[in-house]
Write a structure and sequence with these properties.
CATH superfamily of the largest domain: P-loop containing nucleotide triphosphate hydrolases
Distance between the termini: 48 Å
Bound molecules: adenosine-5'-triphosphate, magnesium ion
CATH class of the largest domain: Alpha Beta
Structural class: alpha/beta
Radius of gyration: 24 Å
Number of strands: 24
Number of helices: 18
Length: 506
């Protein structure tokens, strides 16, 4: 096959969902042995484009070519037979199955003999995929017992199995594979992409522009369902890409550092000697209006600490004191009642109800503010909801569409709005609040964190990277192996250096 013939080519592709024109007359190409980066704001059409490539969504118009031959995939299996596989933004593993079963789901052909499962063969096949990515996740483990990043690695191993089932050079589509991964896991994934490049083509969607710049040969920027630009990393900059994505001037310092208000001395939330299976004797005091960035790697216990403060994880010892009073009801419901809010990292699985509308999802925590007496005030709810849709630039036809119709990033904005609109908030625990959000929305979240703090809300924030942690926090607290290992002041003019913090993380 001549190198000039692209592995995949789309011409004039359009796709509409009801009132939303997700993709308009798009032409897109993936060449052989090429890593293509795909950038764009939340709702720009990235996932829809990949779903068309993998046979999950049928386009309204347009033509598609695989190695120069016109094709039309009506199912994911048809695309897989043509060597195209995808790691989805929403994880797709079946929790009750083992790792091995999940990896081989959909391609049992090899391990099934006349309807009989050959378990040993299956496990060997699955192990071979995990070996490719150097993973030590046990193939017999039940998927629901794995951590979120581990499940993501299984998804990646699963898509790599496509290499063995096709005579084509595979095309691997990765929809935000790194958004739940940290340092070392991201490095493993990038090694895999480098390895794949020799035999396959890769399309990578990510909101981390630097990452895409580092790994891609060519980058497409999507905006409102059209290709706004095509660039090689060598001929562009992160600033230009950011600008192309949002289609307007960037606001400069998107951390809004100048808006950091001083916090009071009054303690607001006191965590005293808190211990559980995941952390030990943690003592942290959040002052009124203080933002504390909590740093740590996977296994440091910081996620679990947040869950425990919110009453969603059992503790063995210790107290939580809010405004001088012991918090007695240790449950999420009790936490919400006293003014503690929590944004989980796994918002798509834990944070939302897909069949309910955007408005209902937003109001879940705050029915109080949109009620008049005992009755839900629909007019008021609509005004408040519309206001947040505008502020966070949530891309949705209206507040009444079901949540599952929104793009991944826009769903996250809705769950975030739920807490931000709550009037009685005293403490807000944010687990990776900007994960999966585009640059514009990130900037808005940073501004909102500043505003909440200025209004006396105390925030404990687990960030996507150390830059974010340092920029947002008045203080940075580091956790390692379930214990607080260091603490740094981080007010405006005295920001700690990332490498100093890192020393206490590993
Ligand atoms: N099944 C669906 N029904 C209705 N609308 C949909 C559906 N899937 C996607 N859309 C809409 O199409 C548009 C593009 O969505 P898409 O998921 O492709 O965005 P994206 O670029 O992947 O965004 P994100 O960065 O948030 O993941 C959005 O406005 C979304 O709401
Ligand atoms: Mg998406």
């Amino acid at each position: 096959m001549s190198a000039a013939v692209p592995a995949l080519r789309l011409e004039g592709i359009s796709k509409r969902f009801g009132a939303v024109q997700a993709i308009t007359d798009m032409t897109f190409e993936v060449r052989r042995h090429e890593v293509v980066g795909l950038l764009g704001e939340n709702g720009a059409g990235k996932s829809t484009l990949l779903k068309i490539l993998v046979g999950l969504v049928e386009p309204d118009t347009g033509t598609m070519y695989r190695d120069g031959q016109q094709v039309r995939f009506r199912t994911v299996t048809a695309a897989a037979d043509a060597g195209i596989g995808m790691v989805y933004q929403e994880q797709s593993l079946v929790p009750s199955l083992t790792v091995a079963e999940n990896i081989l789901l959909g391609c049992e052909g090899h391990g099934v003999n006349a309807g009989v499962f050959r378990w040993r063969k299956l496990r060997e096949l699955a192990q071979a995929q995990l070996d490719k990515i150097g993973s030590n996740i046990p193939v017999r483990a039940v998927t629901s017992q794995l951590t979120f990043p581990q499940r993501q690695m299984v998804e990646i191993a699963k898509v790599l199995s496509i290499e063995e089932r096709t005579a084509f050079d595979p095309v691997v589509l990765l929809d935000e594979p790194t958004s739940v991964l940290d340092g070392p896991d991201v490095a493993v994934l990038f090694e895999q992409i480098e390895r794949l490049r020799e035999r396959a083509s890769v399309v990578l969607v990510s909101h981390r522009i630097e990452e895409v710049m580092a790994v891609a040969d060519r980058i497409y920027v999507l905006r409102n369902g059209v290709v706004a630009a095509e660039r090689r990393p060598t001929e562009t900059t992160t600033d230009e890409l950011r600008h192309l994505m949002i289609g307007r001037e960037d606001t400069g310092s998107h951390f809004h550092a100048e808006r950091q208000a001083d916090c009071a001395d009054t303690p607001r939330l006191e965590i005293v000697g808190l211990s559980s299976a995941h952390f030990h004797d943690v003592n942290i005091t959040l002052r009124k209006g203080e933002v504390v960035g909590l740093a740590g790697v996977q296994g440091s216990g910081r996620e679990e600490l947040c869950r425990a403060i919110f009453g969603a994880l059992k503790v063995d010892a210790g107290e939580i004191i809010l405004d001088g009073e012991k918090v007695k009801a240790r449950s999420p419901r009790g936490a919400v009642q006293v003014g503690i809010g929590y944004l989980p990292a796994e918002r798509r699985t834990e944070g939302m109800i897909g069949t309910m509308s955007v408005a209902e999802n937003m109001s879940l925590a705050t029915v109080g503010t949109v009620c008049r007496g005992p009755v839900l005030d629909r007019e008021r709810e609509k005004r408040v909801v519309d206001d947040w849709i505008e502020r966070l630039r949530i891309r949705t036809p209206s507040g009444s569409v079901p949540m599952r119709q929104l793009s991944g990033g826009n769903q996250q904005k809705v769950v975030l709005a739920r807490w931000l609109m709550s009037g009685d908030l005293k403490v807000l625990l944010l687990d990776h609040p900007t994960r999966g959000l585009d640059v514009g929305a990130k900037s808005e979240v940073y501004a909102l964190v500043r505003d909440l703090a200025a209004n006396g809300v105390s925030l404990l924030v687990l960030c996507d990277g150390l830059d974010e942690t340092i920029a947002l926090g008045h203080r940075v607290i580091v956790m390692r192996d379930g214990e607080v290992s260091a603490e740094f002041a981080a007010v405006r003019d005295a920001k700690p250096r990332p490498d100093k913090i890192m020393e206490h993380m590993l």
